[in-house]
Design goal:
The structure is a homodimer of 150-residue chains. The longest helix of chain A has 13 residues. In chain A, strand 4 and strand 5 form a beta hairpin. The first copy, chain A, contains 6 helices and 6 strands, in the order H-H-E-H-H-E-E-E-E-H-E-H. Chain A is globular and about 45 Å long. Chain A has 150 residues and is an alpha+beta fold. The first copy, chain A, has a 3-stranded antiparallel beta sheet with strand order 1-3-2. Chain A has a 3-stranded mixed beta sheet with strand order 5-4-6. In chain A, helix 2 crosses helix 3. At the A-B interface, strand 4, helix 5 and strand 6 of A face strand 4, helix 5 and strand 6 of B. Strand 6 of chain A pairs antiparallel with strand 6 of chain B, so a sheet runs across the interface. Chain A binds a DNA duplex (30 and 30 nucleotides) through helix 2 and helix 4.
Chain lengths: 150, 150
Amino acid sequence: MPLPQTEAPGRLQAHFAERGIRMTQQRRAILSVMETASKHLDASQILRKAQRLDASVDRSTVYRTLRLLKRHGLIDELDLMHINGEGHYYERKLGRDHIHMACLRCGKIAEFVSDGFEKLKQQVEKDCRFRVLISRLEIGGYCASCRGSQ
Amino acid sequence: MPLPQTEAPGRLQAHFAERGIRMTQQRRAILSVMETASKHLDASQILRKAQRLDASVDRSTVYRTLRLLKRHGLIDELDLMHINGEGHYYERKLGRDHIHMACLRCGKIAEFVSDGFEKLKQQVEKDCRFRVLISRLEIGGYCASCRGSQ
DNA sequence: ATTCCGATTGCGACCAGTTGCGACTACCGC
DNA sequence: GCGGTAGTCGCAACTGGTCGCAATCGGAAT
């Protein structure tokens, strides 16, 4: 179920300004790719799209900017259970955390928002005396339509 | 074929035999490293230890064997929130799934077994009509001792 | 508009993990 | 034990991601 969201799109650049992070041509290109992306992108897709806006963007700048966004909690990084090789996927962080479910047969990715997940995180905070900042729950298995055919 | 486990340690090799998976010198070395490991190892540590038992073991054989173990549900693969670079860590799968908590300050890894986690997976099975085979929940934040110093 | 300094960039070299391929070997049936 | 074959291995080449460094740029102060 593609996702319930609360918050206007397209404000990544504003976040940068508010936090006094320097804005460059290259970052502008990358942010605008992330802002307008409709689905999970991997690093090489982000690079290609960003280079269409600013041809000078380098691979390593993409990775550095992604890391920056990650550190500021503005995007989430996903493995999607390494369905296709080693790569990672990135998505804008909007609204509440959600679980990612990857179908091992058809490769489809579904998302799921659950109160149980929030409760579980609260339990960890309490029982383990651990301050939760980032969390990632990924599940691999078979989706409803693939489940029929063993 | 995914499998629940409650089980004595050190029987990785037996599992291979039972499932008719071919046993080789190299695999024996790698399995024995995994069986005797006391904590999360990364691929290069596994390689080094395995080479002490059989000098011919190659990097790619380690990765291939790890993937094999993963597919058979005998080990878990962790990112530990990419605390140190990109690498992955591997651990023998024993008993119930557990949550990994990585402290972003001191790097310590804690584990936590929770009924809430099991319930959450059941909820996904039911609400999303999704067959759960593998699951991984990783949390990044501050552990009890690092929490004091902001 | 000009200066200036730290932050950022591109580049090339590197580490982590995967793949294709020819050579090798475990193990089944004889 | 012996041979044949599918499964596995080591190697070398590749993709994904990181790092160190010199050159460059953003933007605050002037």
